[in-house]
Amino acid sequence: MSYEKLPMAVLFWVTFVNAYGMTFLFSFIGFMVVDLGGVKTKNEAGYLAGYISSAFFVGGAVSAIFWGWAADRYGRKPVVIVSLLSIVINSVLFGMAKDIYAALITRFLAGLLNGIVPASKVMIAELTTGKDQSIGMSMLSAAWSLGLILGPAISGWTASIDAEMG
Questions:
Q1: Is pLDDT above 60 for 2?
Q2: What is the spatial distance between Cα 91 and Cα 85, in angstroms, rounded to a whole number?
Q3: Averaged pLDDT, 10-32
Q4: 99: alpha, beta or left? (left if phi > 0; alpha if psi -120 to 50)
């Protein structure tokens, strides 16, 4: 293997955290919408939950080209660092949201300020050579999949603990 293990492990973790940050709300967002009082009936919760859930991806679609340019202009590491800080800050702000608009805006900003996907793919390509590139890309895909699976699973589990305690 002709790649460095520590940078690959860091990229694995970054990709996992990114995917987790995208999906952690899926297990409780409907309840959150009802709790925030954004709906007149529980049947309306699905619409707003869908809007809030997709806001991250809308923000990411709007800013994808910018983040590719920024990664080329300023470097991959600064883009990844800014993106990780954005995930942390916006996730905390999302958890503190007092209304539907705050939840929607923080999710949109989390996606808008997130350039991890383009930067990490290029970093894998730069860190690996030849046959190892397929291993590197597979590791990235595995980290992504784990984040997508564990995000809703862990938040659903912690939400059930909260429901039992409260």
A1: no
A2: 10
A3: 92
A4: beta
Which of 86, 140, 104 is CA-nearest to residue 29?
104
DSSP string, 55-96: HHHHHHHHHHHHHHHHHHHH-HHHHHHHHHHHHHHHHHHHHT
pLDDT tens digits for 24-47? 999 999 889 998 987 888 778 888
Instruction: Give me 138's structure tokens.
Output: 């597979």
Cα 89–Cα 18–Cα 23 angle in degrees, nearest 5: 90
Can you give the pTM of this predicted structure?
A: 0.88
Which residue type occupies 90? N
Q: Which of 90, 116, 115 is nearest to 105 (CA)?
A: 90
DSSP letters, the chain, are: --S-HHHHHHHHHHHHHHHHHHHGGGGTHHHHHHHTT--SSGGGHHHHHHHHHHHHHHHHHHHHHHHHHHHHHH-HHHHHHHHHHHHHHHHHHHHT--SHHHHHHHHHHHHHT--HHHHHHHHHHHH--TTHHHHHHHHHHHHHHHHHHHHHHHHHHHHHHHHHH-
Of 92, 124, 119, 118, the closest CA to residue 106 belongs to: 92
Q: Taking the chain, what is the end-to-end CA distance rounded to the nearest angstrom? A: 51
